[in-house]
Structures are given as structure tokens and as C-alpha cells.
Amino acid sequence: MHCIQYVHRMQQTDAAHARLREMIVAGAYAPGQRLTETEVAGALAMSRTPVREALRSLVADGLVRSADGRGVVVTALDPAALRDTYRVRAALEALTAELAAERQAAGLIAPAELTALAADAALTEEATDAGRLADAVAYNRRFHTRVAALSANAPAQAVLDRLWDQIVVSTRASLDAPHRPAQVNGQHRELLAAITEGRAADAAAVARRHVLDTCG
């Protein structure tokens, strides 16, 4: 019985964490907004216990910070921290692009996976050109997430996911069209070609440059 209760509690905690993370990243809760266990539990129609554990996990994820015992506050990175985060992301995306290209050269990536990657690049470009910025951000993240998945490096994927969350939350208020859309889209195509052709060093270089150019 205790084992069943424990599993149920963990499932509830995981569900609360996933839902609350999704809401913060989507902008339902803005940076600086205070969240309390009672308010979040009501919004999620859950008890306070899984919500309390979910909030602790989100502190570890860097999406919220403790608010002196009165709940938590949604966190946005300051400019210096944001630059540092982009630099770490650049290093990890260079690694995952390199590994993806190596796996492609070794015949470990299915053609359908590369087709899906190309489709995400095209959707990103289309949304950017049409001025649909929110869609462009979502497709862009999906493109980069797919590259990370093709690397088959779970630790890198997990860290990148957290970094992406922090960047999205921290930059949403200043969301603007890319200043160099042709460059962004061109770099996506370069990265896609390098991975497809199994050119690991080129894939790493393009991925690193792309992230750092995005940071500006």
C-alpha cells in the first residue's frame, strides 16, 4: 500500500512540475510574478503537496526562486547571466551537432529523422518571413531540440532543455524579429547540410556560431 501511495505521489509531483513548467515557459506566469502553493494548487486542481515538490524542482531548474518563505517568484536572467547561458548553450549545441553528424556518418540516423529536421527548418523560416514570431520561436526550438535528440546524448539534451527554458522566459518580453533573418535561416540550412553529409567538425562550428550570433 505504501509503495502504491508513493508512486501515486510521485506521478502527481511529476504532473505538477510538467504543467507548471509549461505555463511559465509559455508566459502564463511572467518574470517577477509571485506564486504561492495555494494559488498554484488551485490553478492546477491539485493538492498542495505535489505542488510544493514541483516548486522545489523548478527552483533547481532555475525558473523560479524562493521568495523569503512566501512562495516563489518567476525568474528572468539578467543580461550578464543571459550571455553566460548562451555561451554554455553554444558549447553544448556544438557538441550535439557534432555527435549527430558523426552518427549520420556511421549510418545510425534514419532518413525520416533528417526529413523531419529539414521540415522544422523550413517551418521556422516560413514563420519568420511571415512575421509570426511566437510560431518562429517554437519551430526554432523544435529544430534545435531535434538536433540534440539526434546526438543521442541524454545528459546534453537534459541540460539544453533547461537552458532553453531559461532563455525563452528571459527574452519573451523583448521578443522581436531577427535582425538578420537571412543569416539565421542560412545557418539552419548550413547546419542541416553538415549533419546530413556527416561533416562533424563543420556541424559543430556552424552550431556554435549560430547560437553566439543569436545572442548578439
Automatic annotation (TrEMBL):
It comes from the Bacteria. Keywords: DNA-binding, Transcription, Transcription regulation. CDD domains: WHTH_GntR (cd07377). PROSITE patterns: HTH_GNTR. One of its GO terms (molecular function) is DNA binding. Residues 10-77 form the HTH gntR-type domain. This is DNA-binding transcriptional regulator, GntR family. It comes from Actinacidiphila paucisporea.
